[in-house]
Amino acid sequence: MKAKTLYTCQQCGFGSPKWLGRCPDCGQWNTLVEELRPAGATGRTAPPNSQAVRLEEVAATAEARTCCGLAEFDRVLGGGVVPGSLILIGGDPGIGKSTLLLQAMDRLAASGSVLYVTAEESARQVKLRGERLRVSATDLYILAETSLETVLERVRELQPDFLVIDSIQTIFSSALESAPGSVSQVRECAGRLMQQAKGTGVSTFITGHVTKDGAIAGPRMLEHMVDTVLYFEGQAGHPYRILRAVKNRFGSTNEIGVFEMKDSGLAQVSNPSELFLAERPAGAAGSVVVPTLEGSRPILVELQALVSSSSFGQPRRTAIGIDHNRVALLVAVLEKKAGLSLLSQDIFFNVAGGVRLDEPAVDLGVVAALASSHLNRPLSERLILFGEVGLAGEIRAVSRPELRIGEAARLGFSHCYLPASCLKNLEAPPGMTLHGIRSVAETLDQVFA
Ligand code: TYD
Ligand code: MG
Questions:
Q1: CA within 20 to 30 Å of 161's CA: 115, 243, 293, 317, which one?
Q2: Which of 99, 209, 263 for mutating ligand 1's site (highest number of atoms within 8 Å of CB)?
Q3: Euclidean distance between CA atoms 33 and 6, whole angstroms
Q4: Measured in Å, how far apart are the chain's first and last C-alpha atoms?
Q5: For 82-107, how does the pLDDT look when each residue is reduced to its tens digit (9 = 90+)?
Q6: Dist. CA 350–CA 369, nearest whole Å
Q7: Which CATH architecture best describes the domain 65-270?
Q8: Closest ligand to 119 CA?
Q9: Does domain 275-447 have CATH number 3.30.230.10?
Q10: pLDDT less than 50: residues of the chain
């Protein structure tokens, strides 16, 4: 009998009926992945003859989106769920993916029927969790199943409007011999689910665990297949969770939703600035507040630096929540352009609340926090600053200064240091004084005056 599957090298396309550690053709290691062998003409069928049409003649109907009512979730999706879309929610195990989806599905069930496939937990476990989350929807069906074929059959029978697969790494297709969670299984299952979503219009949510080692295929591998990729992030020990869109065919990326994990599930945080600043120490050197933009949303975040003389030869440099290369670069600028001697100092940098920042606009805040800790001089508590720092120590303009200043004013900040080039056409909100600055040295002179 002909083998149904073939091991194909992902680098060069070499095919083998058995798995091999090293591709004999291109010599790469560990690149052979089990794939379904297309059986002649019955394999991939050619698409029906499609015709080219003028773009202007394509009917442009607005996507009918369904909002689940969890505003933070809807915003990250780009304003609700699009019918027939495939949405991947990735994150570390235990971060709260199942919790988030169960809460969202409870609300979505008001607009259509939901089938929640749990391949990791039993239906009873989901029920217990649901009781804690006060899930009360009637049109919410639970299926504890790991076989993809059974799931697809139940979907055909039930015809739900929304489908959840929790998780893609525990579900498997019997067409392949590989274990659940392997590259081939994850890809095959996701491919079949996508075909079904596009064919029947069922909006499908897939969860995937981010994995550190290569034994289990991670959600990154699926990013190109799905319509929307959301990552659910948070730091161990912090109750805050951030839902971040990294790809979205139906909306903007960079939008975030902020949640707090409580005993009764995830609570939405509609005013994250207040939350992130709640535990700010009063008058502490090394603590600085910066207004960062997440998508279209300004959020105030506290930066903390600790600079202390090193007792060993090699000074330690640690950064949490921000790229450590960026911090190293700013340390060098401070050293060279502001005359602070930081070379022999241990430097620890932290973004409070478990937030991750990757915007150059926070550069000036990093510089101020480092200088404040090094000089042991706290900054005024009602002061805020932002701007990109260049290698010559110059302060460069950043986007949407008015949003950042507005959020700062709302939370009672009274002085804002920002790039001088941002001041054009900018009006200060009541109670806020704006200070335009041009260089790092000038900033330090002014804020520590
Ligand atoms: P879970 O949704 O199971 O994570 P994932 O599906 O991403 O693996 O979340 C599990 C964690 O969430 C668990 O450590 C306990 C916590 N949790 C709460 O704190 N409160 C709750 O109400 C629930 C349901 C979970
Ligand atoms: Mg889970």
A1: 243
A2: 99
A3: 8
A4: 84
A5: 999 999 999 888 899 999 999 999 99
A6: 10
A7: 3-Layer(aba) Sandwich (3.40)
A8: 2
A9: yes
A10: 1, 41-43, 214
